[in-house]
Specification:
This protein has about 325 residues and is of the alpha+beta class. A hairpin with a 2-residue loop joins strand 7 and strand 8. The chain starts with about 30 loop residues before the first helix and ends in a 33-residue tail after the last strand. A five-stranded antiparallel β-sheet has the order 3-8-7-6-5, with helices on one face. A two-stranded antiparallel ribbon has the order 1-4. The chain has a two-stranded antiparallel sheet with strand order 2-9.
């Protein structure tokens, strides 16, 4: 909480009316001298802080660190939305205008915050764009365009999830709450590439710190490098090459991964955070090794000790 600063306002006193007494007692000479010294010392301290906050000559200040994660629509412009809508099945110019207008109007109201494009489409017209159908088509496209593993560099990971194998098979794989198209995932990845190291770390830490629910509409699915307890442990093998490995400039800290480079060719996209890998495009069923060999006795879900491997789709742990 920020302290509020109150200022005393004094209006001219009408003739004949006594001036109000000041609440501050007058200072004697010694006290006044001490106060002057304190003020001077304070001013020097402020000057030192300002100087330390200034970047060295010749260096640009690093961009402001993002302190909150708004999900898949973070920083999305109306122009970018127009470009993405065809990938969600909206191709008519008039329909695109309606969706963009809804996006613009709802953005003015905090309680109407939009977190995913399937949610936005359903708000625009529930009868034309029922959310379940939009998401089903997106998942089918993600699965259909995901490449085969043969001849590609792969990464094997684990996903602990409360959903049983039959549920996962029916869903076509493991996907987040607010599923995104490949074209949308590429935009998220492109924005990630523009971030500095500090911004990437901050973004990922905020992401992991959140406790996601279905209403958060986050598209991400988290996986870990080691098997975990607390639910169904699915082993997944994904076609991924990390930045630096794919001929791109090496980076330190969190890394972007893709099945193909440059990003315009990618259909599987992920972000690596130490021993955790976040899938932006979800996990199609064909990448889940043990989906057809479920455990004989389904394990009882429990809270994970390692918050890095979430239990729920799109959850952060």
């Amino acid at each position: 909480m920020h302290a509020q600063h109150h200022s005393e306002r004094s209006a001219p006193s009408p003739a004949g009316r006594a001036q109000p007494r000041s609440r501050v007692a007058p200072l004697d000479a010694r006290a006044s001298q001490v106060l002057d010294l304190q003020r001077a010392a304070g001013n020097r301290a402020v000057t030192r802080m300002v100087n330390r906050s200034r970047p060295p000559v010749g260096r640009q200040p690093e961009a402001a660190v993002q302190r909150a994660v708004a999900g898949a629509l973070e920083g999305l412009t109306e122009g970018q939305l127009r470009e993405l809508l065809p990938s969600y099945g909206v191709t008519d110019d008039g329909e695109i205008d309606k969706v963009v207008e809804k996006f613009r109007n709802d953005a003015k109201h905090q309680h109407l915050q939009i977190r995913s494009i399937p949610q936005l489409l359903e708000r625009t017209s529930r009868s034309t764009y029922p959310r379940s159908e939009v998401e089903e088509e997106v998942k089918e496209d993600l699965s259909g365009r995901a490449p085969a593993l043969q001849g590609r560099r792969t990464v094997t990971l684990h996903r602990v999830d409360n959903r049983d194998p039959e549920t996962v098979r029916k869903a076509g794989g493991l996907f987040g709450w607010g599923v995104v198209t490949i074209e949308h995932a590429r935009l998220i990845a492109a924005n990630w590439q523009k971030m500095g190291r500090r911004q990437r770390l901050d973004w990922s830490r905020n992401w992991k710190a959140q406790t996601a629910s279905k209403s958060d509409d986050l598209p991400y699915v988290a996986t870990g490098t080691e098997a975990q307890k607390g639910g169904y442990d699915y082993t997944v093998t994904l076609p991924l090459q990390w930045e630096g490995e794919a001929g791109t400039e090496p980076v330190s800290g969190p890394q972007l991964g893709a099945d193909a480079w440059p990003l315009s060719r990618a259909t599987v996209l992920a972000i690596k955070l130490d021993d955790e890998v976040i899938l932006i495009t979800g996990i199609p069923a064909k990448y889940i090794k043990n989906l057809n060999a479920p455990p004989a006795v389904p394990p009882k879900p429990t809270r994970l000790k390692n918050p890095g491997t979430p239990q729920n789709p799109g959850s952060h742990g």
